[in-house]
What we know:
With about 475 residues, the chain is an alpha+beta fold. Helices cover about 15% and strands about 25% of the residues. The chain contains 4 helices and 23 strands. The model is unreliable at about 1-20, about 130-135 and about 150-155 (pLDDT under 50).
Amino acid sequence: MKSFLILTMLCMIWLNVAAQAPQSFKYQAVARDLSGNVLAGKSVRFRISILKGSTSPTAVYTEQHIKTTNSFGLVELEIGKGSVPSGSFPGINWGNDDYFLKVEMDPNGGSAFQEMGTSQFLSVPYALYARETGSSGLTLPYSGSVNTYDYGINQAFIVENTYSNGIGVWGRSGWSGVLGTSDTGIGVRGQGPIALYGVSDVEKGEGLRVVCYDNSSQTIGVWATVASPIGYSGYFIGGRFFVSGNVGIGDGAHSPDYRLDVRAAGTSSTGIAVFRNSSGDNKVLIRQNSNGCGAVAVYNTGGESTIGLVGDGNSYINGGNLGIGTTSPNYKLDVRGTIGNNTTLYHSDRRWKTDFVPVRYGIQDLMKLNSISYLWNVADYPDMGFDKNVQFGFIAQEFEQVIPELVTTDNEGYKSIDYVKLTPLLVKAIQQQQEIIEGMKAENDRLKTENEQVISRIEKLEKLMGTSSMK
């Protein structure tokens, strides 16, 4: 036996009504077979047509929906928001004729539609269309104006809803739900637990738009004032926050000159800005010290300030390595380039030292070193900051074979020589050389004395020999 569907209409509710024709309404039905059994979990296709005229109705609007019934066979459509092959739902003029709703369905989700029935729209939906609002006689669209300032009396339009969670004015439109204009006063004013509430449920919609067209004065798009010291002038949740101009924070920053202009609360010691993680731990703190100078503190994972920059005082870096000319420093201070300074001091107080041992390297070791002149390989290592002048020094690999204590190898395997620590070795070599010189000088003096004594003896012999010859 051929089966068919019986649709039982449960309700038809107008959802969105403003000062124009309705934009959609909900339609609920239960799908059953011929025996009255509910068709649960079934994917079906609906074709909805709105017919105009009571004598020979014609379709002014048609749309389709693909829906799956629930466990009770219930399906809900939002008529006005389906796939539209013909017509315009907002373009229907509900007040100029009789209108009917025609429902067709294919139980297999295809296009073999079966007509389920046609029903006339009754007076209840038309009351929501409301060309005139109740007993007030306000004809829509309405336009009017007044000239008054006092709140509560003689406004152009007043709506009061005494319900605890009620809404004073609800506006919905294809472009602007509520639009208020005023040359010098207030275009739209809201009062209540939520003074002004904007909602957008369309793609790339805007919940609230404020535009100031005047470009010759200091206009204000949004002005918010709260009396409570713990209240919020602005509170934003989720999404992003974008400002294309300058932002001022704090008294005196009403006309910010920079993208972000933050003013301290006074001239004494106070915090200006802080950046924290999700647990509330300080990561970066910008403050003003008691002497009026600025300071920046950077914190590690343990909550300790490891970097401190002070405008008029001592600055420090107490964690990790510092690179100048490199983002991967291998040492506490790793400079890729030339350093210029007048004086360099090295810690050498006796109280800081222990385990004194004489230097074991001497002149015999220094004689093994190969002193060279060279040029840096700038082409293969452009990031090292090498200069192009002639250099003098040693090859670290060769130097390491003689004095390994002065050679360091970094994490990448490159070697460096501590030329400063070579100074004590040079002093030792000079001392040894001086000892040799002193010894040679003493030996030379001894030989000189002996030579003088020999000469003296020779002279005496020559005199004796000369006397004997004369006799």
